[in-house]
Specification:
110 residues; mainly alpha; two-stranded antiparallel sheet; 2 strands; rod-shaped
Length: 110
């Protein structure tokens, strides 16, 4: 009879140890899951920040494109007309009759 009690007590201890092991494994698994979720949250925030930055950059590029396309269709006025070809310091419509020497001085093409 005493041997039967010892077997029951031992199986109860094994059962308790198995239950404790299962509880520890579950808590470790929960800890790993929580850490994984925290990492995912950090990566999600970084990705969200990058998307926001790209959104701002795309909006800026679209705005620049819009401004440039409007500028190319502006009516010709004195402020946006190109400079006359003779105003660059050359002679008439030739656009300049000289060239610059390596010393920085101008020379004639004659």
């Amino acid at each position: 009879m005493l041997a039967g009690c010892a077997g029951t007590e031992q199986s109860q201890r094994y059962g308790s140890a198995i239950d404790e092991l299962a509880r520890v494994r579950a808590s470790r698994s929960a800890l790993v899951d929580r850490r994984a979720l925290e990492k995912i949250a950090v990566y999600y925030q970084r990705l969200s920040d990058l998307i926001d930055a790209l959104d701002v950059r795309i909006a800026d590029l679209l705005d620049q494109t819009d401004r440039l396309s409007r500028k190319s269709y502006l009516p010709r006025t004195e402020s946006n007309l190109p400079a006359p070809s003779g105003s660059s310091g050359g002679r008439g419509s030739r656009g300049g009759a000289g060239y610059r020497l390596p010393s920085g001085k101008c020379a004639s093409r004659r």
